């Protein structure tokens, strides 16, 4: 009986420890995303709720959260694409229907790109994580492209809520994947060549610069982007300031 009690106590202790550790993973990601001096694109509470939409986040580590984030934005992109298809089916105005068609195209491409990112995160190598971040960065402009079409028509967007939601969710997914890629590089046991290290850092920079730019726009202060790129260039002169700003 004492052995059973001891075993159960140990199991309970391990369960609590795991729960606390993984809850901390969500906290750490959301705290780092929203805790800077800039005005965050996403609030801390919204970030936590984003991950809580998937029950797996309760037991996920950092890499698991990246996979969950990619899964969630994939579902959001699919839901938005379905919404667009529904609107197109009932739209009588040809110009607005064409606008919805353009939105359908960018969200279809986003779904495809997110699928590639999911595979990259699952692979988990330095290169695949870097490529996953770059791939996620490529879908950041999907909502803006869609909204631009409505602005050209001088009419209210039919997808304003969907575009805003997707933009914020991609920002979270890009952040968690980008930081995972960076941490993987730092803690890796070896890097084969100097050129490979440089290429890996460039992939990470490609993934993170769009998010930095998005944050800069949210504050109407381009100096945020400039400062970030200057700081990066100082530590990595072989890559340079211009690579980020261009």
From TrEMBL:
Keyword field: Disulfide bond, Signal
SMART domains assigned: PMEI
Record NCBIfam families: PME_inhib
Family listed: Belongs to the PMEI family.
Positions of transmembrane segments: none
Species annotation: Dichanthelium oligosanthes
Protein name listed in UniProt: Pectinesterase inhibitor domain-containing protein
Gene Ontology molecular-function annotations: enzyme inhibitor activity
Domain Pectinesterase inhibitor: 21-176
GO CC aspect terms: extracellular region
Pfam families per the UniProt record, alphabetical: PMEI
Secretion signal, residue range per the UniProt entry: 1-23
